[in-house]
Design a protein that fits this description.
Strand order of the largest sheet: 7-6-5-4-2-3-1-8
Helix content: 10-25%
Strand content: 35-45%
Radius of gyration: 14 Å
Mean pLDDT: 96
CATH topology: Cytidine Deaminase, domain 2
CATH class: Alpha Beta
CATH superfamily: Cytidine Deaminase, domain 2
Number of strands: 8
Order of helices and strands: EHEEHEHEEEE
Distance between the termini: 17 Å
Number of helices: 3
Structural class: alpha/beta
Largest sheet: 8 strands, mixed
């Protein structure tokens, strides 16, 4: 399960709408609990580093941006617990490309942005053997 505030979902949705028709991306900063539950404390938006021709269906977080996000998390005594991105005019489900480039342990929040408006949002966890994603429950709170 991943816990986050409604304002976090609103931030992800706004980022997806702002970057439409391209994919947006960013990091989920927070904590891991012993039972595997994750809690998001902050959304860390990143610019999609893909070439413009590819941004509509792919996102890229450069190693330098990822390390900057990790340093930011550590400075707040938190961790990178996941990654989010949008799927413009498509379902909020992981693609084969997403599976091929994901890592176990992290949560992957995908938001569908249809005709410029954020709609469905789901979180996904990769199987330890990297064979597929499973849906992860999202628990939202007010604040």
């Amino acid at each position: 399960m991943i816990n986050l505030k409604r304002e976090h979902l609103a931030t992800i949705g706004a980022h997806g709408e702002r970057d439409y028709p391209y994919e947006c991306c960013g990091l989920l900063i927070g904590t891991f609990a012993d039972d595997g539950t994750k809690t998001v404390e902050e959304i860390y938006s990143i610019s999609n580093a893909r070439a413009e021709a590819d941004k509509r269906h792919r996102f890229l977080i450069t190693p330098q941006e990822f390390m900057r996000g990790e340093r930011h998390a550590r400075s707040r005594q938190l961790d990178v617990i996941g990654i989010y991105h949008s799927h413009p005019d498509d379902k909020a489900e992981p693609s084969q490309f997403d599976l091929d480039h994901a890592l176990p342990v992290y949560s992957y929040i995908i938001i569908s942005v249809r005709e410029g408006r954020a709609t469905d949002v789901f979180s996904w966890l990769m199987e330890d053997d990297r064979s597929r994603f499973n849906a992860e429950e999202i628990m939202t709170t007010e604040n």
